[in-house]
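User: Is it possible to get a 3D structure for a protein together with its bound compound? The compound here is zinc ion. I've pasted both below.
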Amino acid sequence: MADGADGGPGAAGAAGGCVPVQPQERAMCSTTSGCMISKPSQSAGCMMQDYLNDSAGASLILKWMVMTQWCDERFNFQATFLQCLAKHVPNIYSAEMDPLLEKQEEMVQAAILYPLECYLFGEDPDIFLEKLQQSGTSQLCGKVFKGGETTYSCRDCAVDPTCVLCMDCFQNSIHRNHRYKMHSSTGGGFCDCGDTEAWKAGPLCTKHEPGASGSAKENSECQLNEEIMEHSRRVFPSVIKYIVDMLIWEEEKELPPELTIREKVDSYYCVLFNDEHHSYDHVIFSLQRALGCELGEAQLHTTAIDKEGRRAVKAGHYASCQEAKEEIKRHSENISQRPLHAEVLHADVMAHQKFALRLGSWLNKLMSYSSDFRQIFCQICLKEEAGSEKPCFISKLMLWDAKLHKGARKVLHELIFSSFFMEMEYKKLFAVEFVKYYKALQKEYISDDHDRVLSVTALSVQMFTVPTLARHLIEEQNVITTITETLLEVLPEYLDKNDKFNFQGYSQDKLNRVYAVIYDLRYVLVSKPTLWTDRLRERFLEGFVSFLRILTCMQGMEEIKRQIGQHIEVDPDWEAAIAIQMQLKNILLMFQEWCACDEELLLKAYSECHKAVMRCSTNGRSREKTVFHLCGHTLESRPYRVSADPVSIHLPLSRTLAGLHVRLSKTGTISRLHEFVSPEEFQVELLVEYPLRCLVLVAQVAAEMWRRNGLSLISQVFYYQDVKCREEMYDKDIIMLQIGASLMDPNQFLLLILQRYELADAFKKMKPTKDQDLIKQCNVLIEEMLQILIYVVGERYVPGVSNVTKEDVIMREIIHLLCIEPMAHSAITKSLPENENNETGLESVIDKVATFKKPGVSGHGVYELKDECLKEFNMFFYHYTKTQHSKAEHTQKKRRKQENRDEALPPPPPPGFSPAFSNVVRILNCDVMMHILRTILQRAVELETHLWTEAMIQMVLHLLSLGLLEEKQQLQKSPEEEVTFDFYHKATRMGSSALNAVNVLMLLEKLKRVPQLEAQKDTVNWILQMFDTVKRLREKSSLTTVAATSGSEATKSDESTQDKEKAERKRKAEAARLHRQKIMAQMSALQRNFIETHKLLYENTLEAPGKEDAIMEEESMSSAIDYSKIALGPKRGPSVAEKEVLTCILCQEEQEVKLESAAMVLSACVQKSTALTQNRSRILELSGDTLDPLFMHPDLPCGTHTGSCGHVMHAACWQKYFEAMQLNFRQRLHVEQIFDLENGEYLCPLCKSLCNTVIPIVPLQAQKINSEDAEAVAQILSLARWLEIIIVRISGYSVKNAKGEKQNLPAFANKGMGNSALEFHSILSFGVQSSAKYSSSIKEMLILFATTIYRVGLKVAPNEADYRIPMMTWSTCAFTIQCIENLLETEGKPLFGSLQNRQHSGLKALVQFAAAQRTTSPQVLIQKHLIRLLGVLLPNLKGEDTPSLLEVDMFHILVGVVLSFPSLYWEDAVDLQPSSISSAYNHLYLFHLTTLAHITQIVVSSATESPTARSPDNSEEARSAQSFCREVCQYTGGCFSQDIPGWLVWDCVKKGIMPYLRCAALFFHYLLGVSPPEELLQGQKGSEKLKFVSEEGQFKALCSYLSLPTNLFLLFQEYWDTVNPLLQRWCADPVVLSCLKGKSIAVRYPRKRNSLIELPEDYSCLLNQASQFRCPRSSDDEQKHPVLCLFCGAMLCSQNTCCQELVNGEELGACTSHALQCGAGVCMFLKIRECKVVLIEGKTRGCLYPAPYLDEYGETDPGLKRGNPLHLCRERYRKLHLLWQQHCIIEEIARSQETNQIFFGFNWQLL
Ligand SMILES: [Zn+2]
Ligand SMILES: [Zn+2]
Ligand SMILES: [Zn+2]
Ligand SMILES: [Zn+2]
Ligand SMILES: [Zn+2]
Ligand SMILES: [Zn+2]
Ligand SMILES: [Zn+2]
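Assistant: Yes, that's possible. Here is the predicted structure of the complex:
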């Protein structure tokens, strides 16, 4: 061993480099200064110091330091190392039960790892590792995946689908532009970036490419120096030995002597181990019982056990731990379960085991730094002790793997990944070791109970799929044989007495483990070798023969016998056998492919397989042969009946042979077959026998002969033909019959078929059986047999059977799928067989046969068959199921009809058989076939209805067509005299006996006249024509001399018949068209009648908007005068209030809506909403107990939205309905409800929308102003005057009330306002009228609805008398209008006339309700609220709680004051309300005042706006704005800069005020019923210019409708005297000043319109984001479920206990608790890893919704199951946006829950 002394110059240099460092370090150590430790934090530094102060620790480190310089051979590293560990480890890990993890880590670093590293590197580890890191990393990425992490595979370049990239590598690779797949890792795999064998192209990403960071040259330069290598060789063995020793340590109480240095103390732990049998809850329960601990502690233990694999649950003396262990066993054991596994371990043992793992991860980290480390490590791990049989270190660990606990396994596997798997050479050596112990390892795994990812056997995929490695393992380790032998050793427990498998009563879990071995076989075979050596051939054949032994155990396994009489009692287990078949499918195919690589090999394999089949085909030989005659042909065979004797569908040997046979044919090697299998041995009858039995079984099942054998048989038959199995089951059986048909005498072959189908008698003579069931059964059997004959002759799309390519085969499959109907990409994929790489080959051919049709906003994209491919359609395609067959036939016939063509669907000409199969066609023209065909046709013609079916005739016609096509093809190819295929001749020949005296051609002519076969007429005609064609072909060539003329004549006559046919078709088509027309007319008449009779139903839902339009139209026509379109002031137009007659959806009775009649109500849903919020960071109050909702903040943080589905009911009917529902649910308590009856929820009886209340429908009170009166009033009632009157009225009330109850009215000064002429009653003098009188039923509903708004909006208990009820009424009215305005704007729709009917009627009812609600509250209360509201607007009414101008939403104020104002007219004795004229003025002035306030808000809040480059205009508006600004500037003491140009201010105001004006227009329209001007009914035009004009037009129209001057600043000028003091007050407010000074931010106008967050175009960007997501609460590396909030973009950690939050004493998941804040309980999330949108509401409800991402085939991919690249679909995302803004999320959830009851089980609360 070389050391530093005799090292070369390099070593000396390095040593030299170390020299200056050493004394310094030593000095520092002696002064115990902590500054040499760079990484640990401050506290860690202190900790270390503490530790170093401990003399023992310090001296030890000193020793280490000294050693780094001396390091000579005399020094015994191992002894010192162990000594050190023996001393420190037990101390560090002493507190096992309740460890301070950080502290432990610091101590380990200081006492052991740091010195160890110092010794190893010879310098400060941090500095050294830093250097090493920079010097270059491996070219392999090797990132180990955690469960759930997204992996990428390239379908173009990956060698097989197990080759994957990590997100980082993928994003930096060329594959991101290829066809890739995304998948969720199950954990345990690793990134293959850099592995040249894994990729056909682009093996390296840019990050791992040499030269990307630290070039390759540098990499080689920067190898470790000799000294460090030397140290490593010295350190690693001790470290590794320690790890291995401790991990496999079995003594509970003792440690190895070298680690035992101190007195043994009686300190033990009771350790509980993880298993996969016991549920979480069971473990918690057992622990609670056994240890008597709290639930929380038990949970903590259980979580840790699940994660780490083991945990100490009790500490103490040996006896007490032993007791605990027994207790745990006792409490966890029951009849069905074994007890939990617990052990008592000495504290020191536990400590050392723990530290061994820590050392393992230390090594793991070290491995990533240098290839040299890895190589040294691997060498040591592989080193076998000289002369010892014992396995090397790494094998020891592997063999111990199944005994290790979860945490230890993880560390071990990671270490293998980071060392062996990063060095190709060592990976190979590791693989050799792995295979050496393969059997043992797999057996351990199978008896273990941990998941596969946790087993060392799961590493097989990493080695077996590497092509060179696989080849090496086959050649050197005989791995195929090893695997198959392992299988043979683990499966015997399933063998029955005949040595066949039998999986009855098997354990699913165990069998799943066996599958792992089968997978390994698949991995080894996945890449076919390109180069064959003798050794490889030999080993492969050996493996194949060994594999045949497994197949032998399967051949004929699980035999069944037809049950007669009684139904079977128990359905046998069939899943296991079928599942194994599925697993084996691709392996079988791969074996066949491998065999076909090499001629010699193929023949040898064939002969081996043939021998195996023959060995299995012995049974039944004992029976005597019987003879069967028909048509002069005889068949000698041993009797066997499928319906009576045992039969099995598992015949893998026969099928493998069929597969090999086809390959022999394909390669032409079949000519040499006789060299390997002699003809005598071949015995084709025997080969055909078993597959034929299987097909007969299928036929008999179809004929319901096996009814009594139960469902299991049906399932097996289904899978036998299903796409997952059929390639190695059904398809191969057909091939085997084709082999039979090609090698046997055709007549004998058919006789055999007849006999096995048990139909010999049916074609012999007519048996006059009367049993209808038997006849029916026989008919089905005949159909099934004919179908098989069609397949045997017609199905040639198998490479080898004919000369087709794999592509042709797939194309044909796709064509036939699309002949049924257009299909989605995924649906086609699912219907095609996958190869060993999970590819179907779909993409390469789909565009040749189909065109893609894009999807709309919902649904998915589909492929449609190209027209030119339709001719390929074969009605009897052998992969069609019965339903597919009839669907396809129907579709194709319909299509031909539409194209005015005949309905004949003859078979397409099949490709010619390859030579080996060419004899198959002989069965078409053999005697027995003719007999069969004739017999069936005869029966049809003779109308023996019970003996034939239409399907039978169809098949006979199909067979005839095939025969004729064959003859035609042959005639076209070769001269007539050479064509021996004489179908025409046979078919036209008379039969010899009386029974078949008529020939087929004549029978066909007769068939045309059979009425039941009308539908087959076209086909019969086609066949007759074919007869003609063949006849002419025969004649043509026999008369070669006149060939030319007769030929042309023939075609001519052909043409003329075609013409005739055409004319006939045309006539028929015309007749059909007329007939259709007539039917259509009848239909539409019917429809009209239906609508007529159900008009009531339709009226409300469909025709209301039309009606509305009609009224508007009428209105605009009758009165074209301008004033009619003004809503406010003396020029107010008339209300358009029509008599409203509505129909109750419950009782269907009509009723007019009147004040005095019984109430009608509208179903409605009230919800809190944050849809308009301007500030998501604002914390929402969860309960409104102390909330005062009078003033809405301009942020609109959370409002109350009222929506309706627009369906009307009588209040009484609704109440009855609701009560009935309550009763109903109370009786069925166990039924989980989607709606919460306690909170008034119900589903709308008509449309099933979720509702939680009803809105009473209050009629609009029509008002008309007498213009003369108005003129008169206008003279006196100025704003100033109006104000005075109000003030007097208010102060009068306050005086009045002061006498009685103490009123807290704001004291207001009377100075300047006092007018003695005015007194308390002045307000009444401008006109009053008596209040509306509502019927008691309407009143009741008013109260009910108002209470709901209050309860839901504030989340409080209902209280009819609460003072906040009116406030909430106004608030929801204002907020709902704002939401609707917002929606209309975002959708670009006109303000009026474009609302959905439901929105329109909901809004109308809501506004009218809000106006009427006042009458149900005490007027004093309303007045009180009014005065507070007016405080914002009136100069001298400011109260203590009056908010600043910037803290209140003006539209809410407007709605509040307008609706509460009539309360000022209240008199003790009489109930009065303002007359039309009075309210016109009230509305006008109130509106003007709020508008003034809003303008001021806009100006103040936009003060910081910086001017955009625009030519200043000097309009009148700009000048007014300028002068207004001067005033503001003055009142704010200069805080408001007057430099802002006037035009800019005007611009801001005009833009900012629009939403407010639009809301006001909506509000007044629905309140007063005055028609709006035309301009507001028009939508905005698309073009930019027009839009601008229209915006201007809209502004003008709004101003005119709302009685505003278009120069809004004129308002200030007009009311200057009144407004001046008000403006002064507004501006001087501290909040306003602070905002102007830039100290706080105010809302800008117009407010931003909320939309869902921007999502990236490419879904993998999101996955990328998710991969970087770290849970904010925990740092463990557990898999997280990142979820994206689509409202605010927050990424949350969902479904995890770490991020649960305690809200009101309930544990809520991250999403649910986020939703409370972000969406007031309603929220929309994107589950990133699953690619699903989740809608949730509250704590109990939610649903899934497809994410707005589509693959290139227009399909969504929930769960990323298919893994195609996904891209954002904007339309779908917009749909989600509207769902939110229309407040329909709750509705969507309710609807989805009703349809998918499956989500009931989900605990949404913890999402
Ligand atoms: Zn990678
Ligand atoms: Zn990479
Ligand atoms: Zn690629
Ligand atoms: Zn009713
Ligand atoms: Zn409804
Ligand atoms: Zn959010
Ligand atoms: Zn978390």
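The pocket of zinc ion (ligand 1) is lined by residues 141, 143, 165-166, 168-169, 191, 193 (CB under 6 Å). DSSP finds 64 helices and 27 strands in the chain.
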